[in-house]
Amino acid sequence: MKRRTCLGLAFALLGTASMAQQAYPSKPIKLLVPFAPGGTTDIIARVIADPLSRELGQPVIVENKGGGGGVIGAQETARSAPDGYSLGIATVSTTATNPAINPKIPYNTLTDFTPVINIAATPNVLAVNPKFGPTDYKSFEDKVKNSKGEFSYASSGTGGIQHMLMELYKNLTGTFITHIPYRGAGPALSDTVSGQVPMILDNLPSALPFIKDRRLLPIAVAAPERLAVLPDVPTFKEVGLEPVNRMAFYGILGPKGMQPEVVEKINVAVKKVLQDPAVRQRIEDTGSLVVGNSPAEFADQIKNEYEVYRKVVQDQKLTLE
Ligand code: GLU
C-alpha cells in the first residue's frame, strides 16, 4: 500500500515535470542585464534575445539594471521566482570577481543561482584616449609609472573584472591610477572616448568599434594569443603580466531551484541559436568566441573562475577600498 502511494507520488511528480517542460514558456521571459546599455553584457544579451524568442516561441525581453559592479542586477535575479521567466546574464564580474573581493556581497555565487549556459568568452583590452599620448605598451607603462597619481581609469563598476584587472595591473607594476566606477562599460566608455577619463580596460566587444574608429587606442589585450582584429597589439602575457591576461564570459543563469527540465529547454534553445551561422558571425564579429556548453560545465566554470579570483584577492591583498 505504502509502496503504491510512493509510486503514485513519483508518477505524479514526473507528470508535473513533463507538463512544466511542455508548458514552458507560456509567457514572456525577462533577461536581466546587470549593467547599463552599451557594454558587452548588453551587446551579447541583445544578439541572443531575438533569435531565442523565435526558438522558444515567447518574447525574451532584455532589461538593464546597472550598478554595484553588476551586483544589484544579479541580486535581483537571485531573489526572483525560479520559474524560468526571470533569467539574467551571468558575467565574470557578477559571479566571480565581485563575490571574491566584496565581503558584503548579498548572494552566494555557488548556491544562489542555477547556471544554464555559457554563451561567449571575450578578450579584454586596455585602451586609451588618443590625447593621452602613448600609442604602445612600453610608452604607456613609462607614462603611468612616472606619474604622481594624477591619472584615472574608468571601469564598468566596483568589484567587476575591469576594476579587478586594473588593480592587479597597478599592484604588479607598482603604479597608482585612480579608479572611477560607472554603472557599466557603456557609460565608462563614453567618458573615455570624450576624454573625461584617459583610459579603460574594457571587454573587447564594446571597445572594438571605438578602436576601429581610432577614437580609442589599444595598448594591450587579455587573450591567450594576439587577436586577429588587433594583430599589432601585444597580450598582457607578452609584456610580462600573465596574471592580467584573463578573459571575460557571458552566460545565462536563473535563481536557484529551477526545474531541470526548464533549464534543459533553455539550454537546448540557446545552443540551437548559437548554431545559426548568422548569430555566430555576429558574436565573432565582436571579437568573442562562441561557447554554448552544458549547465554542469557552466557551473564548473563559474566555480573555477571564482576560485581563481579568490586566490588573486588573497595573494595580492586586494580590497575594495
Ligand atoms: N562583465 C563586464 C564587466 O564588468 C560587464 C561590462 C558591461 O557590460 O557593462 O566588465
From TrEMBL:
It comes from the Bacteria. Belongs to the UPF0065 (bug) family. Gene3D superfamilies: Bordetella uptake gene, domain 1, Periplasmic binding protein-like II. InterPro entries: BUG, Bug_dom1. The keyword Transferase does not apply. This is ABC transporter substrate-binding protein. Keywords: Signal. Residues 1-22 form the signal peptide.
